TrEMBL record:
<feature type="compositionally biased region" description="Basic and acidic residues">
    <location>
        <begin position="15"/>
        <end position="46"/>
    </location>
</feature>
<keyword id="KW-0679">Respiratory chain</keyword>
<comment type="function">
    <text>Iron-sulfur subunit of the cytochrome bc1 complex, an essential component of the respiratory electron transport chain required for ATP synthesis. The bc1 complex catalyzes the oxidation of menaquinol and the reduction of cytochrome c in the respiratory chain. The bc1 complex operates through a Q-cycle mechanism that couples electron transfer to generation of the proton gradient that drives ATP synthesis.</text>
</comment>
<keyword id="KW-0472">Membrane</keyword>
<keyword id="KW-1015">Disulfide bond</keyword>
<feature type="transmembrane region" description="Helical">
    <location>
        <begin position="52"/>
        <end position="73"/>
    </location>
</feature>
<dbReference type="Pfam" id="PF19297">
    <property type="entry name" value="QcrA_N"/>
</dbReference>
<dbReference type="GO" id="GO:0046872">
    <property type="term" value="F:metal ion binding"/>
</dbReference>
<keyword id="KW-0408">Iron</keyword>
<keyword id="KW-0560">Oxidoreductase</keyword>
<dbReference type="InterPro" id="IPR014349">
    <property type="entry name" value="Rieske_Fe-S_prot"/>
</dbReference>
<keyword id="KW-1003">Cell membrane</keyword>
<dbReference type="GO" id="GO:0004497">
    <property type="term" value="F:monooxygenase activity"/>
</dbReference>
<keyword id="KW-1133">Transmembrane helix</keyword>
<comment type="similarity">
    <text>Belongs to the Rieske iron-sulfur protein family.</text>
</comment>
<feature type="region of interest" description="Disordered">
    <location>
        <begin position="1"/>
        <end position="46"/>
    </location>
</feature>
<dbReference type="InterPro" id="IPR005805">
    <property type="entry name" value="Rieske_Fe-S_prot_C"/>
</dbReference>
Length: 343
């Protein structure tokens, strides 16, 4: 809808004869108020109230749905089951919170007093008489909104607000225990003698098959036989590279690499993204999330980016058949630096 422009309201047309602006401008007052349909039509007012109740009810159902999804649709061990569980949980949380938000906005726009009011600026602490009037105005507003007579609406609002925190609290309480044991993230299934196998084919790797300049994504052998292979894989993934042994500038101890082959945790020490990019000319390992860069030739020390410590190194050697195996677990806890770390 187009509006008529009044040139007299422009600052440029209100200058005095000397070209200066006036010290004060006249108060234009409030714009013309337009009544809503519900202000005169009781049926329209009641219809708006029912709409708000429906929105709060959607929030209630969304919260209940999130709790049911958490209880009946666990993540499982497959990508499909994890996707379904996250989808249902997310949908329930969305409906639970969005229902409250949209209901509050619709309530304010359609049922509450929409007359604009203003008052002159005054000291922050008003006089007692003014404070009494303010309380009276609040009471008048509550009376004007007819909140006391809208029992169903109040019930729907209180129920939705009371239930929604459960959609967050139930999963949190349900996960207290093993999943909250941060020390579990410090331990992986790597141990002495565990073979390095390719991800995802699980084929063992012979040192003779690893050429200089190559990089391999590696997991521990026997991962698929565990009860929770995806959880363990997320902690144990490794990036293995081979370079000329003469390029190695430092190691964490004797025999940590084998003939120029080094292996480091793929979990970035910044926020846990996978560091999966290797540049063979510089021997740099790059995290694509926030560009933390680690020098594979120098113990995966940080050379750029927000990461604060090197990637943990996996000490490796070969077995009697020439296959690459771990000499032990990682040199230190894997993952972001802000995780609790005990010595």
């Amino acid at each position: 809808m187009s509006t008529h422009h009044d040139p007299s309201t422009d600052l440029t047309t209100q200058r005095g004869e000397d070209g200066t602006l006036p010290e004060r401008f006249e108060d234009p007052g409030h714009p013309e108020h337009h009544d809503r349909q519900g202000d005169h039509d009781p049926k329209a007012n009641k219809r708006a109230e029912r709409q708000v109740v429906v929105l709060f009810t959607i929030s209630i159902l969304g919260t209940i749905g999130a709790i049911v999804a958490y209880a009946l649709v666990p993540p499982g061990e497959t990508v499909g089951s994890m996707r379904l569980s996250n989808l249902l949980l997310g949908l329930g949380l969305f409906l639970g919170l969005a229902g409250i938000g949209v209901a509050a906005v619709h309530w304010a726009k359609s049922l509450m007093n929409d007359h604009e009011k203003s008052e002159e600026r005054h000291a922050i602490r008003s006089e007692d008489s003014v404070r009494v009037k303010a309380v009276e105005a609040l009471r008048e507003g509550a009376k004007d909104s007819a909140i006391g007579r809208r029992g169903v609406l109040k019930g729907a609002m209180v129920t939705s607000l009371a239930l929604f925190p459960l959609s967050i609290a139930v999963p949190l309480v349900g996960n207290i225990g093993g999943d909250w044991d941060v020390s579990r993230s410090k331990r992986t299934i790597w141990k002495r003698g565990t073979r390095l196998v390719l991800d995802p084919t699980a084929r063992p790797i012979k040192a003779a098959d690893v050429t200089i300049g190559s990089a391999f994504h590696v997991i521990p052998e026997g991962l698929e036989e565990l009860d929770h292979p995806l959880n363990e894989k997320a902690k144990a993934v490794v990036l293995m590279v081979r370079m000329d042994p003469r390029d190695l500038r430092s190691e964490q101890g004797e025999g940590w690499s084998y003939d120029g082959i080094v292996a480091f945790s793929k979990i970035c020490t910044h926020v846990g993204c996978p560091v999966a990019l290797y540049e063979q000319q510089t021997h740099h390992i790059l995290c694509p999330c926030h560009q933390s860069t680690f020098d594979a030739a120098d113990g995966a020390k940080v050379v750029f980016g927000p990461a604060k410590r090197p990637l943990p190194q996996l000490p490796i050697t070969v077995d009697d058949e020439g296959y690459l195996v771990a000499q032990d677990g990682f040199s230190e806890p894997i993952g972001p630096s802000f995780w609790e770390r005990l010595t």
